[in-house]
Amino acid sequence: MPDLIIHSAAQLITIQGEGPKYGAAQGDLGIFEDGAVAVNGQDILAVGITNEIRALADGETQFLDATGCVVLPGFVDAHTHAVFAGDRANEFEMRLRGASYLELMKAGGGIMSTVRATRAASVEQIIAQTRARLDRMLVYGTTTAEIKTGYGLDTATELKLLEAISEVAATHPIDLVPTFIGAHAIPEEYQGHGDAFTDLVVNEMLPAVSEWQKSSMLHMRLFCDVFCDEGAFNVEQSRRILTRAQEQGLALKIHADEFANLGGARLAAELRAVSADHLMVTRREEMKQMAEAGVIAVLLPGTTFGLGKYDFANGRAFIEEGVAVALGTDLNPGTSWCESMPMMLAIATRYEKLTIAEAIVAATLNAAYASGVGERVGSLQPGKQADILIANVPDYRYLAYQYGTNPIRAVVKRGKVIRQ
Ligand SMILES: [Zn+2]
After folding, report:
1. Inter-CA distances, 407 with 87, 96, 164, 340, 401, Å
2. Torsional sign, CA 371, 27, 335, 236
3. CB neighbours of 285 closer than 8 A, spacing ≥ 6?
């Protein structure tokens, strides 16, 4: 009956359970020593001790020996801006010399330089560049990723980015969860006219996105996200955009409390957003509101690191307040060009004070729920999609302890061994 059995793992990390994990359960890895997982078709058939799982085999079953290794669910990257053209290596070098992110934005650099490059690129060029990034993500064990538009900032280019995401999603092994973030920044042609640009997002872009969705081959729920922060969108503008998106049936995310606390986390709780992301300057009372509303905190330690800053999100406090914590790379050309979820484990454990086990749950099951796909991926349990990693490490702690090298030896995606 099973097509594939991965067996003899030093540790099989299952992370089984219902719903996102929070509080004490956030560190619940569900480990089997000498573990094995049986796969049938695209799905997981059974998990357990090697002897029991091997007994399920028949003459057709293939075996993959994980002796001395850790087997775990594929990583889910809960927050990426992976679809863009060009790079900002020049800006990175300027920033190292002392220019701040907001200064670079005001000088016409920053996000607008990526917007200009993305508007100028063909959809084929954008697809080719995005695919190369996803290939590297897969090597580091990412099997599902959320992916945002937001480098168009006009209706035509935002639709071009959705088209690119849809094409890559249909042809790349990584499962993609698309997010529309037309309100990623106020474009230069609307500088000083944030309300007018908000009108454009609400009255033109969101309806166009709905129309596009009806004709697209992406048959999944879209997310809508807004960058609610100083220099971007205020709470009132963010509320208008997210409320309209919700009326159109989109699920909600929000970039909140990265530079300044405008009340973005409170807005996420008020609108019952699926996630609020960044959260470096969120207050305890707002964490409580997020916990009550079931909003997942997506922490992005690569961004703080990428900016050479020290104000990491207080992951420990979110867990103490009962908020489910997820992780993402924030892969983007300006502040965090990182394609490696193991690197996020390394930083989140050291600077956001997550335990190693909590960080692994954050990078798998909770990231899956933050991306709206927690019922399908993020843990190893019967009936879920067989997205499985074999890591060449003797126990799970090495996944954060060692860093800068790739621990992933093999990737199984939808039941097929696609990297070994
Ligand atoms: Zn972001």
Report:
1. 27, 30, 30, 11, 11
2. positive
3. none
| DSSP summary character for residue 284 | H
Cα of 252 from ligand 1 centre, angstroms = 14
CA dihedral 272, 273, 275, 281 (to 10 degrees): -80
Quick: pLDDT tens for 182-233: 999 999 899 999 999 999 999 999 999 999 998 887 777 899 999 999 999 9
Query: Would you tell me how many other CB atoms lie within 10 Å of the CB of residue 378?
Result: 31
Q: Where are the alpha helices (DSSP H) in 73-153?
A: 89-96, 101-106, 111-120, 123-139
DSSP string, 396-415: TTHHHHS-SS--EEEEEETT
User: 188 C-alpha vs ligand 1 centroid, how far in Å?
Assistant: 19
The full DSSP string for 28-58 is ---EEEEEEEEEETTEEEEEEEHHHHHTT--
420 CA to centre of ligand 1 in angstroms: 31
Residue carrying the six token digits 């920053």: 110
Convert the pLDDT of each residue in 315-340 to its tens digit.
Answer: 999 999 999 999 999 999 999 999 99
- Distance (Å) from CA 217 to ligand 1 centroid: 25
Contacts with 262 (C-beta within 8 Å, 6 or more apart), sequence order: 228, 229, 230, 234, 235, 256
Q: How many other C-beta atoms lie within 10 A of the C-beta of residue 196?
A: 10
User: Residue 305 C-alpha to ligand 1 middle, in angstroms?
Assistant: 14
Please give the structure tokens belonging to residue 194. 């944030």
Q: Which residue, among 154, 297, 162, has the nearest Cα to 222 in the 3D structure?
A: 162
Decide: 345 and 400 in contact? Cβ < 8 Å: yes
